[in-house]
Amino acid sequence: MAIRVAVDIGGTFTDLVSLNEETGEITEEKAHTTPRNYARGVLNSIDQSGLSLEEASYFVHGTTVVINALTEKKGAKTALITTRGFRDVLEIGRSRRPDMYNYYFSKPEPFVRRAFRFEVTERLNNEGEVVTPLAEEELEDIIKTCRDEGVEALAVCFLHSYANPEHEKRCQEIIQEKLPGISITISSDLIRELREFERTSTTVLNAYVQPVTGSYLNTLEDELDNIGLKINPHAMQSNGGSATFSMARKTPINLVESGPVGGVIAGKVLGDIIGEENVITFDIGGTTAKTSLISRGELKVTKDYKVEETPRFPGYPIKLPVVDIIEIGNGGGSIAWVDDVGSLQVGPESAGAEPGPACYNQGGMQPTLTDANLVAGRINPDNFLGGDFEVSLEQAHKSLEEIASEFNISIKEAALGIIKRANSNMMNALKLISVRRGYDPREFVMVGQGGNGAVMGPELGKELRVNKIIIPPRPATFSAFGMLMTDLRQDRIQTQIMSLADCDLAKINSIYQQLENEARDVYFQQGIKDQDLLFIRSADIRYTGQEHTVQTPVESGKITDQELKSIREKFDQLHHNYYTFNLPESQAEFVNLNLTAYATVSKPELSRASDDGSLEKAYSGTRAILFNEFGAQESKVYQRQHLPVATSINGPLAVEESKSVTIIDPEQKLEVDQYGNLIITSRSDIR
Amino acid sequence: MSRIDPFTRENIGQGLIAAAEEMFASWGRTSQSTIIYEVLDYAAGLTDSRANLIGQANGVTGFLGTITYGVKSVIDKFGLDNLKPDDIVLTNDPYTGSGTHLCDVSAVMPIYYQGELIAFASNKGHWNEIGGMNLGSWSTGSTEIYQEGLQFPSIKVYREGELNTAVRDMIAANCRTPEMTLGDLYAQTASLRIAERRVVELCDKYGREAVKESIDSLLNKGKQRALNELKDMPKGTFSSEGYIDTESNGIDDVYITAEITITDEKFIIDITGSDEQVPAPINCTRYGALSAARVAYHSLASPDAQPNEGFYSPIELKGPQGTVFTATRPAPISCNWEGFAHLTDLVARALAPVMPERITAGHFLSIMGTIVGGIDDDSGSPFVLCEPQAGGWGAGVDKDGENGLVAIDDGDTYNIPVEVAEHKYPIRVEQYAFNLNSGAGKYRGGYGLYRDYRILNSSADLTVIASRYRYPPWGVAGGQQGSPNYIEVYHQDEEEPVTRPTFTNYSLVEGELVRFVTGGGGGYGKPEERNPKRVLEDVRDGFITVEEAENAYGVCLDAEKMIVLKEETEKLRSNRP
User: Fold this and answer.
1) Closest Cβ opposite residue A113 in set B228, B411, B541
2) What is the ipTM of this complex?
3) What is the tens place of the pLDDT at every residue in B235-259?
């Protein structure tokens, strides 16, 4: 028997999902997250599940260790070496002031203080040619200071090193020899893309989290070994692929969004299984809602990720591919409040797990979205978290009184008001990821997940006008399920500015070839065979003079004049899609050549839902549910585990399960497919 | 009474603001000029059908303040009846509403729904080249506006969706980089259409009346917010004075003064007494001054308030026409940000003693607008590197000043990366580093920057302007003043650099170096009150020396052990007044 195991650390719970490759059976388990020693929570979840890791054929881990080290500033004592004249670049940043009217605006604190930012004499020009050779002897003093000060990690980023990594490599060699214990990151190993601040920032952040991530992964690997794991464990990367622990130790910064990515992959996997290639994932948890988009079976990745960025704070750039997820501070625990000019707001402040929403009766007095959902009858107070958790409808009511009196409306209207505001916030995020990027939601299905995705998803999906809304089985641990199905992934990027019109095709071809060779070597070292590798190429192209580029797909294999022409056409088309115009007569140029290298892992078949239920068995009564459009509607309630395959019933109704509830309005229809997914569409007899 | 519930109304309002933001993002991604896409020297906003600002995206603060007046000037010229769907009007006329210099071109588009005018979309950005006496168009030596480039006195560049080719050809013929300039025209106008699309969608979904009602509600709430904030502000009249000292066209000191009166309902800035407009391009017009007033008021009243006409309604600007802040045709205005920035600074300085929780000590203020341009030896085409510089900001009641940050009239504005600059222009950047001179204080001023360009082309012209050359940023509550802005040119075979605040079409040859030095901010509180631990950390970080620690802060350090000598420090400090 072979099983696949995914363990995903979240803020409150560590989720484990396993899949039996022979029977297709899936199990889930939740253990408390253990912030002092995250590995403990991972092991607890395995222990509770009763699984034997000796039988594991694949083990993948979603971890918050990197993002926590960054946001809590608990990484290594880090030093930086730059080209002479540029050690302050890290602190100058892009010198922007997004909080425009605030004289008290504060820039991000650099992760390396000035005392540990060193300069060496060396210089390359933008072609990568040496203008001033590396003054190797200057490293002596730097090494001494690092040793004396107990520096644990070192970042090296020289100007134009994307065009020629030799100085950085030499620097690394010398230091490694003199300071064998220190962990060193050179920028050219991470990214070969221009813009010194962003590249330096990425390099520094990688160095900063490397020791802590390394020791965490080492500890966990040892522990897993102790309990019998026979295979190499994998970590979930923010680019949507996985990497072995040993690869993750080299570029830990790739784990920055290790957790949230799972939900997106899960959406893609589900789409693959049921034959939907266009998917909008929508994951609503306790404090945030996250959405991402899969078009034609492909995840969208961005290179504009910034840690802690907000509209008023520049954040810390990481110029590496991260799955494009829009996250907003609206979830079940988000607090509703009235601002000083009398507008109702929801979030971003959250009641969290302590004290939690007012209905938890743990001292929380402020109304949350969950309280509003409870008062609106969307959540069943008698079956909250499968009845394991007692909630107080009375406290929920009470918490809404202030808002009701502020607007001079009833408690129920206040609840609906909160839901409307939260819906609007979430709708903005959903539009940002779809229509604002040129996608037509009618060509997409929405997958609702997380504790609240099933409650809010159907209503929002209808408003966004997606084709259908899908609530998968076990929506609350769906993210971990996604991780079970990930392929290994590496991303490689090389800046090469070159006009398309007089393009040196031999050079372009040789760069792609070299990127493939580099990626292939890494996989070969892990014993992965050629037939399991998949290379996807693209190029960042722009009109000459522009800076921002459009990522344009490029076919594999040797690029001919014919293919070049088709690349140009695709670029013009995409530019038009994104920005409503294009300039087919203008010159265009390559900026970056990108390669994504997948090593595919075998994907087992999922078992189909067992079919011993019936509507009668599933039916558990009725209750009044408040809908935005229709007011209060007496709605039938069903228990999900008893709903038979091929069910087809009209709303209004609610489907309850152990950790979630799905709400379906009078104009919607519910069907259950062969995998047990709830499929919600608009009723054809009405519209 | 209202037909829609307050929550839906709020949602529509947020949708309108999102439309402005989307318009902004789209332009940045499609522009062909570094000054737009890298520096983000542009802004976007939405007004109602009477030119009342509904919402705006982040951008350049100095531009944002003019959106209202630009739209007003378009309505004034054409009248509502003569505007049609899919018209797009260009204006850069500083005296009638566009407000800033000619390079900053405003585009205005009326948005209709089922034939009824609902709103205007407007954006404004810096076009890299618009003709005039100088490569890069704006000049530090102009004496009248006719030298400063092409003027668009509110003209329809698109008439009901159709490009006015005569205008296009005029632009192309009068600019040094026609392809880039026209590319920017297309990017700018295309982004207006994105805003239009979003407004129409909102009308489709909620109905026209609901959208109109939401706009009114948004403006009313803005006004309510303003009145709430005014209630908490100190009442009375406050004044300050200073000089604009760019030395442009040989004019050393231009005297400026402002009197600010705050009541429960009004925020009045009176600039009476300031010098008359000067034959140097540092003047701003009344619309520029009104925009400056918005920025200053916004910072004081509530930095996180949503900007809209209601929120800005308490502002009044008093004083005669024809001053350096209210210049009239044909006064030169191509470096109008000097007038603009100094007006915001007069207000800040006047209020700093009574509103220390909002205003930090003086900052480098002058954006040090820079052009390095010429004809590229390799390509034979013109190149124009145009950028603002970042500098040091002042300290506040509980914090040191920020290092290397753009000035008040820039906002979400970026520097140009060294690697991008070297790719695009024949220069080598030899240094980008802190200028470690700023005002000492309990909290010290932030540091300005050094930025060095070595010329790699046979020749290049330098045009740059800065104020705060002889009058550095001010300190507060015993904090010391900051350090000045200046520019140094290192000629070959000459030891000493030529140092000035302003250069106009100044010739450089291959191998020569220009150093831009921005000042450090003023300090807050007496230096002797600075926590010795902070002084020690500053020494460790190489911000100050052991000697400076002792001289400026009265802190004695053991340089070997890197510790504070407590007794010696107490003794030294107690001996100082």
Assistant:
1) B541
2) 0.94
3) 999 999 999 999 999 999 999 999 9
